[in-house]
Amino acid sequence: MHQAQPLTIGSNLLTTIERLGTTDDPLPSFELARLKREAAKLLKANAQEAYVVQAGLAALEWDAAAVLDNTNKALRLGATVTTYLNCALSLRLVGNTAGAVQLVTEAVQRYPADMEVQKLAVEVLISAGRLHEAAKICQAMIDRSLPHADFIDGTLFLAAQADKLGITDETMSAQAGFARDVLTAHRRRIHGYTVRVSSDPDGSEMLVFSIQFIGTPLDEMRLESELASKLADLPDWDPCVFVMELLATPLQHADLSV
User: Are 14 and 52 in contact (CB under 8 A)?
Assistant: First the structure.
């Protein structure tokens, strides 16, 4: 998660939350209680930062309503880069990608020269299937002569490939939404994603969107089957051109030390 400078109690708590968010293991009740006590103390000293922390804690508990509530409270006290980025990440942890997209879009408008804002906005938009919107941010960065970053070229290339294949953001976002719904229904967090161009021996190409989650090969087969049944109902579903897939990665256990 994004840390304010200089480092604060809130920053340290956000670092702990980020570490705990890398696993789907249930958070021990004693650890959760300790973090909540720390957040309550922080509320008296820095309410805005405390609400950002509480949004992160709510995300660990899969409490989407509390994440949104604390996000709104934090933003009412100040729309800082730290607030935007951390709350966007917390919203995404509970599957509220629409809320995360809204926050990063607002952040880009408020902080058009901040590289961390641009990078997270591009990442969130692509993960939501809104590749062309992400490409517009990258092109705007070039137009404003901002420092070049590797993700710019990759994003523009993928958007061009999507245009070549006739794949729209509507198609990608609809399928990404189904994938998120499947994972969220099973309390599985998105732990990464890749978008790549794949070529068949006959020379045909397709765009492959892979979403990683923690699980076993059996989990992957089960959730992939569930996703396929949803995608098959889409009128424009064409897996020969665009593939949305769920990939299981090995289980990791959270380090509870602070």
Answer: yes
Whole-Å CA distances, 186 to 95, 165, 219, 221 = 11, 32, 10, 14
Radius of gyration of the chain (CA): 19
Contact partners, residue 44, CB within 8 Å, separation at least 6: none
Task: Give per-residue pLDDT as tens, 115-161.
Answer: 999 999 999 999 999 999 999 999 999 998 888 888 999 999 999 99
Q: How far is CA 167 from the centre of its chain?
A: 21
Phi-psi region of 211 (alpha: psi -120 to 50; beta: other; left: phi over 0): beta
Let me know the angle formed at the C-alpha of 2 by 212 and 190, rounded to the nearest 5 degrees: 15
Q: What is the pLDDT of residues 49-67, one digit of tens each?
A: 999 999 999 999 999 999 9
Are the C-beta atoms of residues 227 and 244 closer than 8 Å to each other?
yes
**First-last CA distance in the chain:** 15
Structure token pair of residue 25? 């293991």
CA dihedral 182, 75, 107, 49 (to 10 degrees): -90
CA 27/CA 33 separation, integer angstroms:
10
**Model pTM?**
0.87
- The answer to whether 224 touches 245, Cβ cutoff 8 Å, is yes
What is the spatial distance between Cα 257 and Cα 3, in angstroms, rounded to a whole number?
A: 18
Strands 242-249 and 205-214: parallel
